[in-house]
Amino acid sequence: MSADPRAVLTRPAPEPDHTVAYGDHPDHVADLREPAVSEPGGDGPARPLVVVVHGGFWRSEYDRRHTGPMAAALAALGYPVAQVEYRRTGQPGGGWPNTLTDVLAGVTALPRLAASAMPGRVPDAPPILLGHSAGGHLALYVAATAPAAVGGVLALAPVADLGEAYRRDLDSGAVAALLGGGPDEVPDRYAAADPQALVPIRPRTVVVHGERDRQVPVAMSRGFVAAARAAGSDMTLVELQECEHFGLIDPESAAWPAVVDALRSLHEDHRRIDAASRSR
């Protein structure tokens, strides 16, 4: 592993197996990776589709390509994977509300699109959303807004409290750029977009956060998970003592096994729920 935790952002990864469009804009696309293995038995694919929602503080400088190493590693573990793209701040159409509604549209469409592109490899069940940083915020937003479309959420160092992120001035005004101002200026947008204001979140959720995270302080996840649980959400917080922000998306990091374990726990919940629904 590189001594620079940001090295994962530019590390080469295998090309995706397919790229599909969920809308008309050039950024309304997702890269698909076929699962390398599948579990024997059963009447369909054992592992759910994982939709990866990339971070980068919603800014145009960061796109889905930096999640390539993680997506390839997940596919190697047997998960069908979709890396969804969306319009971001700093480009035409990015920011409020399109950044949020793009991801919502992508998540809603991707099970069908992935099943068509990868026949027999994608189960007929809602996907698990895996979002990192700003992508964690977007995954939580989708889960709160369209819970029936989501089979579970793995939020890695999510920006889960937009009001607090604005007050802390994370990434030099990233939240204001997304929503067009602060909570006092555009309160309706914060009410509609902030996971802290959208609890309870119905889909099962695991939040993983490193205690050494300097980009998104772990205190934000502690406060969010406490509020979500108090409101009735089925949510777990996993804190990693020796982890910073980028190790959570790096398959070569010491944090990666904890990320995989969290995904597997959601996968098992997903399978139990799917089995129960099939038996009705």
UniProtKB/TrEMBL annotation:
SUPFAM superfamilies: alpha/beta-Hydrolases (SSF53474). Residues 14-26 have a biased composition (Basic and acidic residues). The keyword Cell cycle does not apply. Keywords: Hydrolase. Pfam families: BD-FAE (PF20434). One of its GO terms (molecular function) is hydrolase activity. Residues 45-224 form the BD-FAE-like domain. Residues 1-26 are annotated as: Disordered. This is Alpha/beta hydrolase. It comes from Micromonospora globbae.
